[in-house]
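Worked problem 6 (solution included).
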Amino acid sequence: MPFVLLYLVVEIVALVALGSVIGLGWTLLVLLAGSLLGLWLARREGVRAAQALAEAVNNRRVAHAEITDGLLVAAGGVLLFVPGLVTDLAGLLLVLPPTRALVRRRLVRAAEQRSPGLKTARIRSEGPIVDGTVVDEPAAPGTPVIEGEIVDPRDRRAG
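Solution. The predicted structure is:
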């Protein structure tokens, strides 16, 4: 409950301050323009985040950045939907890619501090993946290996 009261006080102070500087009509226009611009940006960035997520899934890689971006864009859209100058500004900051990247890095860092296994998983997911087969018996020295298969020199001469 105290958070809601603080939110209301901050929004009222911001609206009164802006209204006293530029007037009531311009303040309403700023609110309307900010909401429309923000919702358009949220839609555009949401589509981009969904496409990036689909691409990551198609490439079979961990999509932690894409999922985080999608969640931040969704949070920004919700903030833009809530009436108010401060929430519109916070929503716009979450929707814009440069500021969203800063927030994403802070969120990932905080999550990795709480759970160190996440950092290990992220680091491993960013490296190259090599498909191969484990061979129990070692190959003879000097035997060439191609794509994980032992090639017999006698079979090479026949082909």
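Discussion: Residues 12-85 form one domain.
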